[in-house]
Design goal:
With 187 residues, the protein is mainly alpha-helical. It is built from 8 helices and 2 strands; from the N terminus they run ααααααααββ.
């Protein structure tokens, strides 16, 4: 029979249920059987309870995974990546591999597949998405919104100023508002 994997929230609920059963006089083995798990599992969960309480409830494991081999290059690589994006230069994993090799000789001597896996893990861990198709796709939405607001701040007062020529392709005539008498003249 395949063993079921519980997420941390379920494990903590089962430990609370286990504590209630133990208060009612159940043995470890009997309480574990009534919960549908092995006694060793209950022991492990009890031992790991402080760590599990600090983890997100939907996770199934309390392991943090392997430590990155390029942790010391994280800040310089991310900074360089952001600088390249600010200049509108598209990035690829190969470019990041070259930059990491320039920053650390050990990385350059590793096999290409290993370099790729390290860079990919770094990008995943820091939520860096590499888009190579267009320059516009690499711009942050907030930067685009700020630029648009700045443009409107400059253009809106000009368009609304007296004596400014306004043209619309749907108009059959051009309207000119004179700052002197504010009368409409057809051109």
């Amino acid at each position: 029979m395949a063993r079921k994997r519980y997420n941390i929230g379920q494990k903590l609920k089962m430990l609370d249920e286990f504590a209630k059963l133990r208060q009612h006089g159940y043995s470890l083995r009997k309480a574990a059987a009534s919960l549908g798990v092995q006694p060793t599992q209950i022991r492990k969960w009890t031992h790991n309870r402080p760590v599990m309480q600090q983890c997100p409830r939907q996770k199934k494991s309390i392991c943090k995974g392997r430590v990155s081999a390029i942790k010391h290059l994280e800040q310089p690589l991310i900074g360089w990546c952001l600088d390249q994006r600010a200049e509108g230069i598209p990035l690829t994993y190969a470019l990041l591999q070259v930059k990491a090799g320039q920053l650390d000789e050990e990385i350059r001597q590793r096999p290409e597949k290993s370099q790729y896996q390290m860079i990919r893990a770094l990008c995943r861990a820091n939520e860096i998405v590499l888009r190579c198709v267009t320059h516009q796709s690499q711009r942050r939405p907030q930067d685009v919104a700020d630029e648009a607001l700045e443009f409107l701040g400059v253009e809106r007062p000009i368009v609304g100023a007296p004596g400014v020529l306004t043209w619309s392709s749907t108009w059959t005539r051009l309207l000119f508002f004179s700052p002197c008498n504010q009368s409409e003249h057809s051109i």
